[in-house]
Structure formats: structure tokens, C-alpha cells
Write a structure and sequence with these properties.
Elements (H helix, E strand, L loop, with lengths): L15 H21 L2 H28 L10 H19 L5 H8 L2 H4 L6 H31 L10 H25 L1 H4 L3 H15 L10 H10 L7 H7 L5 H31 L7
Amino acid sequence: MDGLDARVPAISPRRPLRDSVTTFGALSWSGFRRYATYRQATIAGSFTNIVFGFLRCYVLLAVAAGAAGGRPGGYDTTQLTTFVWVGQGLLTVVSLWGWTELADRIRSGDVAADLLRPVPVVGGYLASDLGRAGHAMIFRFLPPLAVGALFFDLYVPGRWFTVPLFALSIGLAVVASLALRFLVNATAYWLHDARGPIILWTLSSGILAGLYFPLRFLPDWLAVTMWVATPFPGLLQTPLDVLVERDPAPVQVGLVALQAVWAAALLALAALVQRRAEKRLVVQGG
């Protein structure tokens, strides 16, 4: 590849930690550069997110205008507009849809090459996805946010720790999203064709994550059940609620702690599924 250094440092038994960090950083940087090459797709995607941002914003403002007290789900109008525009930016950062790389490699048999590399499969995909998320934070998150701030009044956090807590929440959301997408794609190890699970994931993840409407619009018992019993609110709803300070500070911190538990559990589950799959891996065609 012209102009690109595709080498990945080997992990030495004498310096495992430093070399592991170096390798993880190299894979993350390669993920960033990979998505930086698709300039026209980035511009088109940002434009699409901005258009849908206007549509979603006016729909939720109409809901707020018709709600008793003008605070549906406990959000005022500035919190709702911030929820929409930041959510439009985070949609690509967290990346709910469109990733079928693992399933495609399993189906073609190319995943066998992944098992020969000195990097765990889950760790390699996580590093690359963090690089993708870093690119999206710059080129897909900021444009919708800037447009939203230009045309609407956005909520300005009043607590000093909200912004760093929001940044941590975004990182946890990216990790959880990658783990969930990995698990959905990994069904191809047993099904050989993961299109069914991927379609189900595409149809359900946006609703369960709070993309189309805030989950606080649902009855309290249902919203709490979804938060505790499923990881989906941690993908979008938790970061957005943290930013707009929908809850008191202790609840705000507790939501991020719950998000961290889910992210760690999902990552561990993805690693476990990968180890089980390697024991019975069958490459189609021989």
C-alpha cells in the first residue's frame, strides 16, 4: 500500500505490556486512517444526519408543545433539541448499523487468517473500531452539533463534571456497541449466514437505544427495566441524558457506572464466544 505503513509491531515476551499498547495504538490509528479515506461518504453522511436532525427536532418540539407543562419525559425544549442534535452526531460515533465485516469474513473463510495474527480477534476489532469512532467524533459528530447550535438553543451543562462524564460515557458506548455488533456477526460461526440476526439488530437497536425518541417517554417501570436488564440504553440514551443533565448528579454517575458494567460484560462475552467458535470453526469450502 503506497504511503501507508501496514506493519504491526510484534508482541515481545520481554515487554508484553508496552508492545501490546503499541500494537493497540497502531491498529486504532489504522482504523482512523481507513475511514479518513472516504471523504465523499463522510460529507454525504453528515449532510443526511443534519437533514434528519431538523425533522426529528421539529417532531419532538411539537410533542413538547402539546405536552402538559411543556416537559415531556422531564425534558425542557433546550434539552430536547440538544438530545436530538447530539444524538445525530453520536449515531455514527457509536455506529449501530452497517458493520458486517466479521460475518463476511466468516462466510468467506478469511477469518482463518485473523486467527494466525498475534492479536486477539476481539481486541483487534475493538482497536480498529476505536480509531473509526475517533474519526467520526471529528468529522461526523461536530457538523450536526454546529448546525444545531446555529439554528436552535442548545442546553449548556451546569455541572463541572458533566462534560468529562459525557466523554467517558461515549467511550463506553463505543465499546458496548462493538461488542454487541461482534456478537451479532459471530452468529455466522454457527449459521454461516448472519443476515437474519443482522437485520433483526438493525430494526431493533435504534428503538431500544433511544435514537428515535427518548426512552423516558415510556412508562417508568418499562424504562427502568430496559436500563437494568438490557445494555441498549447505554448506547445512546445514557450519554445523552448525562449531557443534558436529565437526572440528579448521583443518578447521572450511577447510569455511567451501569453502562461500564454492561460494556465490560459484553466485551467478556464477545471474547468467550470467539473462543468457543474457534473450537468448532468450519471454513466453508474445505
